Amino acid sequence: MAVVWNGLLVLGLVLGFCLVSSLGELELFAESPKGDGSLAFLVVGDWGRRGNYNQTEVAHQMGIIGEKLDIDFVVSTGDNFYEDGLTGVDDPAFQESFVNIYTHPGLQKQWYSVLGNHDYRGDVEAQLSPILRKMDSRWLCLRSFIVNAEIVELFFVDTTPFVDKYFTKPKGDVYDWSGVLPRKRYLSNLLRDVDLALRESRAKWKIVVGHHTIKSAGHHKNTDELGAQFLPIIQANNVDLYINGHDHCLERIETSDSPIQFLTSGGGSKSWRGDVSWPNPKELKFYYDGQGFMTVQVTEAEIDVVFYDIEGRVLHQWSTAKPLFSII
Ligand SMILES: *[C@@H]1O[C@H](CO)[C@@H](O)[C@H](O)[C@H]1NC(C)=O
Predict the structure, then answer these.
(1) pLDDT above 90 as % of the chain
(2) Rounded to the nearest whole angstrom, what is the distance from the C-alpha of residue 312 to the centroid of ligand 1?
(3) What is the pLDDT of residue 8?
(4) 35 CB contacts (<8 Å, ≥6 apart)?
């Protein structure tokens, strides 16, 4: 279990009081690399369907691969509970879609989860509640927060409030915006906090995790609001990977105008949408329309990303390296 710190307190103590007011609300959690200097985690998204749509099969393979890689934690890219999040802390979906599904010994690690748009259609506070963490100590879901694992720092960002149409054209859906309104202030505080945290980061690798796509060839395509408001911040701060769910697929996009890898891991259950297009096929390095998950292995020198299907077959692999002793 990660040691929970209040980012405000720790950084405030280390860097002096002047920063405290601008650091905002991002809670900080600590992880450490293993003795050999490496760290590994799984990424799954868009999963909670009581085991249906191959959720159980994906969970089983995550367990096998998780055990093999001796993972340190699991990342969930959101849409944790379908169709409409949790109704409350006593919603049986928490047991039926999480506790009773990810039972493999290889998955008994800390989970770090963000909220997806479907989670916002339920009781948001329930998913964030310490009561769920008491029911299953693996569970941790917050709106936006940071996991500092020394060689790599992960910035989890609440992307749903960025998307205009949930506010202007909610159709029949009811969103729980308590804690978000007034929206403009929520978003500007969030952008400022993430920008500052990224700038202050001394980690060799920076990874940003959100539910919504920035770039995706799948059904939902790019999220224009994130492209306009959020992408410039992660680009300016040398982020290495942006990891999302939302599109129910596995994919990697690499564009010539940015060193950031855009990785989608949203294959935790229902998928096979059959809806793929990207203007420049050279940039779409990998796209799989079915279920599966992703692994990330990190050392100071290298990052390795692997995508797996529900049989545990490797679908795609990508690596990058940085010189060991660079001046940051
Ligand atoms: C489950 O996975 C198999 C293998 O990828 C696929 O053929 C099948 O359509 C999937 N089932 C569902 C309901 O998505």
Answers:
(1) 90
(2) 14
(3) 46
(4) none
